[in-house]
Amino acid sequence: MDDPLLWVNDPGWAHLADSAGWPVLYDITDDWTAADRPAREHARILANERLLLQIARSVVVCSSALARSRDRLRTVELIPNAVDTQRYVQPQPRPEDLGPGRTALYVGTLHEDRLDVQLCRRLGEQLDGQGASLVLLGPNALSRENTELLQRSRGVRILGSRAHDQMLKRTCGTPMRSSCRTR
């Protein structure tokens, strides 16, 4: 490689970034320093984050809260999450694996730090009693036990990962917004 750049998102890779000798971009999309972890693991996360903030050529964050917390330590660039609205202009057919009926849809990584598994289980059961379902779409990083718990729960379906061009585009007849419901 003529001009490599190491893009790091997980602070667990801080020592590779430090030893590689390449310029580093630290992309903070989650505040892992706030994650509920055992004391030793939390200390390791904090140390790795400090190292990455010291050695990275650039640090980017996706939220103003992350910008405020990290900007105290060094200069960061805020690149907010966004939506490619052109992908949602034309109505698309309802994906078959979404299932029939009303659907509450979560799109994102399935991870214990982001997803309240017990709440999802209870919500799925309530929705099932109303002829609806909770669909979880995205990479599954849940423990085997939590995955199995959700798979056994009435009214909950885990669809797994999907390529960007296969993501749900639009499942209702009006422009996509938070109040949009599937038919």
Summed up:
The protein has 183 residues and is α/β, with parallel strands linked by helices. The chain has helices spanning 14-20, 39-55, 64-71, 117-128, 144-152, and strands at residues 6-8, 24-28, 58-61, 77-78, 102-107, 132-137, 156-160.
Structure notes:
- The chain has 183 residues and is an alpha/beta fold.
- It folds into 2 domains: 6-78, no CATH class; 86-166, no CATH class.
- Helix content is 29%, strand content 17%.
- It has 5 helices and 7 strands.
- It has helices at residues 14-20, 39-55, 64-71, 117-128, 144-152; strands at 6-8, 24-28, 58-61, 77-78, 102-107, 132-137, 156-160.
- A 4-stranded parallel sheet has the order 1-2-3-4. The chain has a 3-stranded parallel sheet with strand order 5-6-7.
- Strand 5, helix 4 and strand 6 (132-137) form a beta-alpha-beta unit.
- Helix 1 (14-20) runs parallel beside helix 2.
- The longest helix is centred in the N-terminal third of the chain and has 17 residues, at 39-55.
- The radius of gyration is 20 Å and the shape is globular.
- It starts with 5 loop residues before the first strand and ends in a 23-residue tail after the last strand.
- 17% of the residues are buried.
- Residues 169-183 have low confidence and may be disordered.
The description of the largest β-sheet is: 4 strands, parallel
- Could you tell me the number of beta strands? 7
| Poorly predicted parts | 169-183
Taking Cα atoms only, what radius of gyration do you get, to the nearest Å? 20 Å
Domain module tally? 2
SSE pattern, N- to C-terminal: EHEHEHEEHEHE
